[in-house]
Amino acid sequence: MSRITGIGLTPFGRLPGLSTLDLMSRAATDALTDAGLERREIDGLITGYSTTHPHLMLSTVFAEHFGLRPAYAHAVQLGGATGFALVMLAHWLVEAGAARRILVVAGENRLSGQSRDAAIQTLAQVGHPTYEVPLGPTIPAYYGLVAARYAHEYGIDDHAELAVLMRANAARTPGAHLTEPITAAMVRDSKPIAAPLRLLDCCPVSDGGAAFVIERADSARPGPSIRGAGQAHTHQHVSAAASLTAFGAGDSAGRALAQAGIGLPDIRYAAIYDSFTITLAILLEEIGLAPRGGAGRLAREGRFSPGGAMPLNTHGGLLSYGHCGVGGAMAHLAEAVRQMRGQAGPRQVAPPSLALLHGDGGVLSSHVSLVLENGR
Amino acid sequence: MSPDGDPPDWTKGGEGLVLARCRACGGVQYFRRPFCPACGGEDPAVETASGRGTVYAVTVVARAPSPDLQAHAPYGIALVDAEEGFRFMAHCPPEGVAIGDCVRTTFRAFGAGLVPFVTQDVRS
User: What separation, in Å, do the N-terminal and C-terminal C-alpha atoms of chain A show?
Assistant: First the structure.
């Protein structure tokens, strides 16, 4: 079994003057301090990627910069699903005995390190270079297509309550990018971006970094354990998705739960990727945490609030804590660990025994799910 | 026909929507590869699609991905299920095209080339 023994999470937002390597270093330093480890005690390193620091070998660039000489290292690229894919890989590497203590780290100055136009243009390139990108779509446009189809099938084009909840959660989280309270009416009245998505349906672009230490279970070193992990990959491009209302999220989560030997009713905390309100609604529904067409209603009824039956992204998620690329979803895991440890301050919920985490990359193309068990 | 024998294809600057059909299993593909991704059959037959289909999803881009394209905004983008059995992305008017509508395809200049442009098929 593997345990998460250290977490590092920088503030997200506009952090001028900090590079990708600076942000990775800050998160890594915090994770090592949290784990009570020195650099020399780390024998494995897995990193994500950075759009502002593209490199063929980001893991060894970081190892040299930070002062690590790992016995195992490489980078992983899986879009928004990367963060949890790194953790899943570290889990298996530790289980397999390939490394004993692995540092998982990501960071990017996605907001400050490039112009806003450059960020939007870079991200839009996930579209098909021949059959989609020439038509001028954006990431919100790909998700706008998904949201329109969802509205057509379920008669619901409004997920404002999910944005309101994430903002309220962020207001209690030090380091969150967006903390000004919003209402559902403000979401519905915000600037159109890609119909039916409006500005407040979309996560911000942030600077930030996140890191974890994942190591083989040792009774002397407590921490939440990774009890199950699963993936599913159904397509890359939105034009090639078989359906825009059924993706691989349910398969991925089902594999993770089966591996953990538990069922969805055992889960007490949810950490779900929320690049857009529609992303969060679809993932909650496909995983089975809400009925089809019902995620917004459950949010309105308080089910996903910190005091509800299924607390969700209590740090504010991508929608309000912020989205710095690979580190974005890693903040969801850092928060789940804090909640399990009882270190979430004013947003502390009853420390959950089991949490389900889910990330997606592309246009709901790649899915990674984790089951985390409290090991206090 | 172009000099290489393929029918006009908007991805190469021509006014045409092209599909490839597997000679072995009949599988249809829009993202063209020199093989069939379903069965592995090689050298699928290339043909021109009718351009007729049904709108599967539609959005309106208010904020374009680059300053040069912003002049065109707002523009509609649709995913269309072609009658030949493939799905393609096309431009559409920002208003008046809805999911389930039958559409036909023309081509219009956008950015550096031509893109498919679908409008309601009045004959349907």
Answer: 15
The mean pLDDT of A319-330, rounded to a whole number, is 98
> What are the residues of chain A with a beta carbon less than 8 Å away from any beta carbon of chain B?
117, 120-121, 124, 128, 130-132, 134-138, 140-141, 144-149, 152, 191-197, 237-240, 244
Closest partner CB to B65 (pick from A130, A136, A240): A136
Residues B77, B112: Cα–Cα separation, whole Å: 17
- Provide mean pLDDT across the span A214-223: 93
CA distance B2 to chain A (A): 18
Q: Which residue type occupies A233? A: H
Domains along chain A with CATH numbers: 2-113+205-373 (3.40.47.10)
DSSP 3-state assignment of A157?
coil
Q: What is the pLDDT of residues A285-322, one digit of tens each?
A: 999 999 999 999 999 999 999 999 999 999 999 999 99
Pick from A117, A124, A128: CB nearest B31: A128
Domains by residue range for chain B, with CATH: 53-120 (2.40.50)
Here the tokens at position A166 are 């994430």
pTM, two decimal places: 0.96
| Cis amide leading into A291 (omega within 30) | no
pLDDT, one tens digit for every residue, chain B (124 residues): 555 678 999 999 999 999 999 999 999 999 999 999 999 999 999 999 999 999 999 999 999 988 889 999 999 999 999 999 999 999 999 999 999 999 999 999 999 899 999 999 986 5
Indicate yes or no: CB of B115 within 8 angstroms of CB of A134: yes
Q: Is the dihedral of CA A300, A301, A303, A305 positive or negative?
A: positive
CB contact under 8 A, A137 and B89: yes
Angle at A257 between CA A233 and CA A304, to 5 degrees: 95
Alpha-carbon gap, residue A348 to A288, rounded angstroms: 24
Structure tokens at A367: 């899915």
> Would you say A327 and A209 are in contact if contact means Cβ atoms under 8 Å apart?
yes
B107 interfacial to chain A (CB closer than 8 Å): no
Q: Identify the CA nearest to A107 among candidates A329, A318, A331, A327.
A: A327
Q: How far is A235 from chain B (nearest CA, A)?
A: 12
Pairing of strands B53-61, B102-110: antiparallel
Q: Does B66 touch chain A (CB under 8 A)?
A: yes
At A128-166, the pLDDT tens digits run 999 999 999 999 999 999 999 999 999 987 799 999 999
| Cβ–Cβ < 8 Å for A348, A339 | yes
